Amino acid sequence: MSTPVLDRTAPTEHPVLDVLAGRWSPRAYDAANEIDEAKLNAALEAARWSPSAYNLQPWRFIVAHRGTALFDQVVSSLVEFNQLWAANAAVLIVSIAETESEDGKPISHAVYDLGQAVAHFSVQAHHDGLVVHQMSGFDPEVVREFADLEPRFSPTTVIAVGELGDASGLPEGLQQAETAPRVRRPIAETVILSA
After folding, report:
1. Does the pTM exceed 0.90?
2. What percent of the chain has pLDDT over 90?
3. Which of 11, 65, 116, 184 could form a disulfide with 50 if both were Cys (CB 3.0 to 4.6 A apart)?
4. Which pLDDT score is estimated for 2?
5. 142-148 long-range contacts, CB within 8 A, separation 24+
């Protein structure tokens, strides 16, 4: 089966790298395809080498492949809306912030650094032809329980990864979202002070 092609390039105010302008967050995943492990590993490697204050690397990932019990556990943590489409992804990844060191010292920048790691993951994955959609709609306590996480680890997002699927398989409202114009607040409204 060939991967659907859908140009969702962002209408940027200024030129940016093609991989950044082209990256978007679809909900249509090809449920028939398995993940290309080399591409997944490259994205995890990109995350590994993202910037990290004091090189603490306060990020961890749970990587669950479709068809495994772990995948089903991650799906069970999702809100119902996300379960509608995310179960078709080849892989679901839980991103986890290490908010405290082993000796109990708070890591104030943990979520920031985790975000950078996930951004690097997303850009590499998109570059290699995978699609990524990050979700905040899940129950961290469900993940904490099945993964037996120490309190110092905080499940933060779930990331769907795989190949682009056919949007016609989505519920009607989601089909429209897949092709709706991409919009962002203008830079002038984002930069609150500049001199």
Report:
1. yes
2. 82
3. 116
4. 45
5. 142/73, 142/76, 142/77, 143/62, 143/73, 143/74, 143/77, 143/94, 146/73, 146/77, 147/62, 147/94
